Amino acid sequence: MWELAADTLDYQCGRPGQCAVYTIETVADGLRFTLDADDADDKPIHHVYGGKLDGGDVLMPNTALTLSLEKLDESTIQSTLKKDGLVLDR
Q1: Residues 17-53: pLDDT tens digits?
Q2: Coil, helix or strand for 7?
């Protein structure tokens, strides 16, 4: 479990949230991520997502977003968030 500090993040656009707790769990078919945070306006955010580490795009429930998870090596996982095929975050 990691606690993110807004003053240590390198946001390149938008306004950063004030705090977040990010948890990564191993599940039978990959990883599950849980994000509990407050956005820049101090509104709560809660997201649970994840899946296989095969690089395939998976639709995130109740959104127009897809997420792919890929294991690059023994200590590196890349996640890519897309909307309409365009990368929003990596």
Answers
A1: 777 888 989 999 899 989 898 888 989 989 888 889 9
A2: helix
User: In the sheet that 30-38 helps form, which strands lie side by side, from edge to edge?
Assistant: 2-5, 19-27, 30-38, 44-51
Q: Do residues 47 and 57 share a domain? A: no
> Cα-flanking dihedrals φ and ψ of residue 8, to 5°?
-105, -5
Q: What is the pLDDT of residue 57?
A: 94
SS3 of residue 6 by DSSP: helix
Q: Tokens standing for 34?
A: 């849980």
What is the Cα 81 distance to its own chain's centre?
8
Question: Against a cut of 0.85, is the pTM above it?
Answer: no
Q: Are residues 64 and 43 in the same domain?
A: no
3-state secondary structure of 52: coil
